[in-house]
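task queued by scheduler; priority normal; single chain, no ligands, no partner chains; default sampling; output format set to structure tokens
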Amino acid sequence: MKKEITICLAGLVLAVSCILSGCSAKNTATPASFDASDYVRISEMTEAGDNPEAFAASYEPIKNFDSQLSVPTYIAQYDDTWFIVDCYHNRIIYSDTLGEPLTQWNIMTSDVTRPHTIASDGKVYIVDDTENNRIMVFEKVDGKFINTQIIRDVGSRPHYTVYDEDTDTFYVWSSTTGELFCLRHTEDSNRMYVTDIRKIDILDGVYVRSFSIIDGDIYFVSGVSDAGLPAKIYQCSLDDLQIKKEIDVPDALAGMVQITKIQKYYYITTSTDKSGDQNYATIIRTRSLENLISGKYEDIYSTYFVGGGTPYYISNAGDTYFLTEHRLSGHSIWSFEVNRNKIVNVKSLY
């Protein structure tokens, strides 16, 4: 009896704690370890990957040689290193100091064509090489980033990559085939395996720029297609991409880039309208995605940023958020904070 009372009290304390702290339904269980016994595909080792220590000993990174960015799409910090995906310069650059001149950054790789994102679990760094339909795997050896592995034939134009700690899985999105590639490595090795290829058939042939994992579900932004399909956000099960909900979107927001949940709002960057016109590019936010179709959202692009460009991906490092954009001279990367749902400390970094 005493044991039952103790368990009940523990459960009550946890429930009250969740109410006070705003706990979500997110799965916090430790994901099952991967033993490489069941997989779809294994990575191809590069020449450097066969002996990365020997390669690193004779390899010296070179400095970035452009003073401006050309269509940056993503910025991230892993450990103490900052990375910028400089899409139209076909390279990824890195630095220990955010804000220093771009010519002081090092080149991680220029062996990519129109890359869009980078993700890391602290052991490997995954880059989507968009126009070459492949994934590049990097490892940090003696402080240098070495391309050790390649995975080819990753759908068509892999466009967005995320590492999800809850499932210990990298997810790479093929932007025009509706396929989600799942990548893992074992605990004692960095060798990458494609463990699953999940597909949402209705998005095959639709240009969808990204997805978001929110409270255990995966959300695909509205995309545009040659067939002119209705603009929708799809909320799906992460396990099998079964559609849970279809959310209608107005034509003006059809060409979405990304959905980011920050505190009580969904922030959405949009590149084009349904016809592909970039003059509709903007950033909006709403408390409910279902409110979009009725126009119940706040356009924040010109209020907090400059407006008039094409905003792309939003990322974060700690409590600071970062926005990449193009079509604006001198405004390629922004930082901002959100304090009690108010946007503050907006700065233009590059």
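post-processing summary
- Confidence is low (pLDDT under 50) at residues 1-26.
- The longest helix spans residues 2-21.
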